[in-house]
Amino acid sequence: MIPDIQIQDYNYNLSEDRIAKYPLPQRDASKLLVYRGGSVEERRFVDIASILPEGGMMVFNDTKVVPARLFFQKDSGAHIEIFCLQPIAPAEYSTVFASTVSCRWRCVVGNAKKWKQDVIHVYDSTSDPRIGSLNLTATRIEKEAETSIVEFRWEGGKMFSEVLDICGNVPIPPYLNRETEAIDLERYQTTYAKIRGSVAAPTAGLHFTDRELDQIRSKNIDIENVCLHVGAGTFLPVKSDNVADHPMHKEPFVVSLELLKKLKEKKGDLIAVGTTSVRTLESLYYVGVSCIEEGHPVEVRQWAPYDREYDYSLEEALSAIIEYLEVNKLKELKITTRIIIVPGFAFKLVDAVVTNFHQPQSTLILLVSALVNGDWKTIYDYALKNDFRFLSYGDSSLLFRAKE
Fold this sequence. Notes:
Helix content is 24%, strand content 25%. By secondary structure, it is of the alpha/beta class. The protein has a nine-stranded mixed sheet with strand order 2-1-17-16-14-3-12-13-15. Strands 5-6-7-10-9-8 form a six-stranded antiparallel barrel. Strands 4-11 form a two-stranded parallel sheet. A hairpin with a 2-residue loop joins strand 1 (31-36) and strand 2 (39-44).
């Protein structure tokens, strides 16, 4: 049964001065709120390894933020902002970034009313000769609700990943209320980011340095990676009064066959770094169910965890994915998920999460509440009263799942 949840019950007063507009000078200098068994403790992020239980596994999201904001100019002088959300042709991220002539993306277009079907040229505010040599143009092919299909064309034979590096801007969150600056090029990216595709950073990982990773390994904790490309939907508040009416955005993720086998045999606690890692890991059970019942992986529906009872064990679900991959000689699972994790969700894999402090009335607050059995206000009240910094560049928390 789809839970009956009123989003107003997940509101709190977040004043502008509590939002961290810039990162701290050092990545791991933030505060760390530790929640376990109903109690809150304040620590420093540099202490995180000493707090984690020995053994077990820690899973990071190694997606890489792309400079997906592009600015164009019409012949009339009007400026058009194009925010690339999802590749359409080619549809595969690795393939679209390797394109050397043209590609199509689903985009959000700013100042869209002033752009019809005409070809527009990239706006170069710096007179960078590299930008001029590309002759990058955009054509609006189709409009779909709040997004548009845009075709990009360029010259010079460079890959589209290079085109974005030269012409694009890092898409920092809109709630920072400022333009992208030089510091964002480095700090709105995790140190371990590898696979291009996100338009928003998995911000829980922004705190980690090599020092923390080495200390975590020294505690016999297995460090593993998944990849979920974070979409712009991560910025969207729940606008409907009842969460049941909120459409969850779709995001692609990749999990290796090797990791699936480790998860099946896992011992000790599984700590997910970031809500994106939680969504990836918890989606696996429902992907496994589709492999059992339909013979192949199927996209995880938003309300799949709630609309029926499941009798399969986690081991059976993971085994089904592993068998499918091995039979088809595949080394990784590539699938999409719309899963929404709200109070009442039955966690199958994740025992704890490292995460920042999220916007009021967001799906991420709902996820936190689900993890701590509804006790999210204890966490957020403490953070508000003790000068924690909020949102993407803010402080961190380590939340252990409430277990009955």
